[in-house]
Each structure stands twice: as C-alpha cells, then as structure tokens.
Amino acid sequence: MSLQIPVTSDAVIGHDAAGGVIEIGGDFAYQRHAIVNTMLVGTAEAWVLVDAGMPWSASSIVEAAEARFGPGARPRCIWLTHGHFDHVGALKALAHQWNVRVYAHPLEHPFLNGSHRYPPPKPRLADGLMSLLSPLYPRAPLDLGSHLKPLPPDGAAPDLDGWRWIATPGHSPGHVSYWHPATRRLIAGDAFVTTGQESAYQVARQTPQLHGPPRYFTPDWTAAEASVKALAALDPEMAVTGHGRALGGPAFREALLKLSADFGAVARP
After folding, report:
1. I want to staple 128 with a disulfide (CB 3.0 to 4.6 A). Which of 3, 198, 201, 228 is the partner?
2. Starting from the edge strand earliest in sequence, which strands make up the sheet with 238-241, in order?
3. Contacts of 103 (CB under 8 A, 6+ apart)
4. CA neighbours within 13 Å on the CB side: how many for 80?
5. Residue-level pLDDT at 134
6. Are 131 and 215 in contact (CB under 8 A)?
7. How far apart are CA 27 and CA 163, in angstroms?
8. What is the distance between the alpha carbons of residues 140 and 143, in angstroms, rounded to a whole number?
9. Cα-based angle 158, 34, 24 (whole degrees, multiple of 5)
10. Which of 14, 1, 66 is nearest to 201 (CA)?
11. CA-CA distances (angstroms) from residue 142 to 7, 123, 148, 203?
C-alpha cells in the first residue's frame, strides 16, 4: 500500500480562472488533464508551457493559453520535467502548431528523439487501479525532431527570466524540476506528487497529501530520495506537481520536510 504525508486543506492554493485553469499567481497557473497537470508560466509578453498532458489535451491547452494570454497566444518554448506519456501526450502536436523549441535534460532525449522506450513499469510495487493498469500505459518514444533542445548546462531555464532548472532524477533518468528562487516557487514534476497517483480513488478525490514519485514508474529509488531531499532543502513557498493540487505555506513546507526525512518508510517500496 502506498503511504503518504497528510496535508491540511489550508495548504491548497489557487482558484478557478478563465480557460479551465487554476490561478495561483499573476504569472502562474496550471490546468488539470484527467490525471496530470500542465503549467502556464509568465505573462502575455513572455510565457512558457511546462509539460503537455494527455494525447487529447492539445486543444484544451491552446484554449487555456488564448484565454489567459490572448488570441493566437504562443509560448516562447516548452519546458519538460520528463517524457512519460502523460506529460508529453500533446507535445508533438503543440510543438508543430506553435513551431517552438522543446527543452529537456539530455538524459531524457533518448525517449524524445525516437531512440529508446522507457523501461516497463512495476505494478506490484503498489496497490491501486492506476498501478494495476500501468502495463498498458504507452512507453514508446516520441520523435520531436529539430524541436528538441537540451536544457542549458548553466542551470538557467530558457526564455523566462529568473527561473532555474534542477536535476531531480529517480522517476526518470533526466527528470528535472523548475525553481524560481526570488519567489520560492517550485514546479516539481513527479519528483514528488500531491495525490496518491497509484490509486484511481485518490486521483479522483485529489485530497491533499504528499507522496513520493509514482511507484510503478520509478526505477531508481536512491536517486528519487536524493531528489526529494534536495527540493525540501530549498524550503519552497509553494509547489505545483505533475499530479495533484498546488500546495503552499507552512503546512506544505512541514509536510515536504517530513516526506524528505521519512522517505524510506513512506515513499520507497
């Protein structure tokens, strides 16, 4: 059974806004696509999309972007946390429609340039319908062609001032998180999540909880633990993760520190 760190409801942040997005700041919003989140970060003058949802998400993402930034809105680029199917479902369509660069860690490129499939999941590592169904999830690589670019080696997140990328491997070899030091805002991808992603019931309820990365698709638990500890050490004010609600404030920070300290007992299979 997947364990979790409970988080009080006052840690949930954000409110509904135009285009089906959840607003968590004047230049930061996210949109839920069935089981996964995408993020729209920036202003009409300069914004980026983070991750690309499910295969049917393209039109919803475009509609949200145009509701938020205006007709014909086009990001400067797309940032990826990693290339699992639920984070890149609409990626190829959006990259072509917008004709933009897609940035990912070089270790994630084999899964995005047509070279390699992700390793098979391990559904027995956790109870729950989502885990049970994981052998059916797509693992074939995308081929993004010339749209795919490596993240800059200096740690700067491209095309948006003030953001940094941080290597947070474990859930995938090239998994990264995005960090805004000035405001202590974190986009954690699946380094940790705020719902029990192994359970369809927990995914539907979206009860605020802190979990490690989804167990069935995490091959390197030593790296995953180190990544959570590195993110907790940043003392983020708020976080949006790939799955679950955005959380912030003291209750969130306390829960993240507890997840970091108790990772072996709570998150690691």
Report:
1. 198
2. 164-167, 176-180, 185-189, 238-241, 247-248
3. 77, 78, 79, 80, 149, 150, 151, 157, 158
4. 37
5. 66
6. yes
7. 13
8. 10
9. 50
10. 1
11. 36, 23, 10, 26
Ordered by where they begin, the domains of the chain are 5-266 (3.60.15.10)
pLDDT of residue 124 exceeding 80: no
Which residues are CB-contacts of 250 (< 8 A; sequence separation ≥ 6)?
none
Per-residue pLDDT reduced to its tens digit, 88-120: 999 999 999 999 999 999 999 999 999 999 998
The answer to whether 129 and 136 have CB atoms below 8 angstroms apart is no
- Phi then psi for residue 36, to 5 deg, are -145, 155
Place of tokens 């409970």: 6
Separation of alpha carbons 25 and 219, rounded Å: 34
Q: Are 249 and 10 in contact (CB under 8 A)?
A: yes
Helix (H) / strand (E) containing 130: helix 129-132
DSSP 172: S
pLDDT digits (tens, 9 = 90+) for 178-213: 999 999 999 999 999 999 767 776 767 788 999 999
- Sheet-wide strand order for 101-104: 15-16, 22-25, 28-33, 36-43, 46-50, 77-79, 101-104, 148-150
Model pLDDT for residues 37-53, shown as the tens digit of each residue: 999 999 999 999 999 99
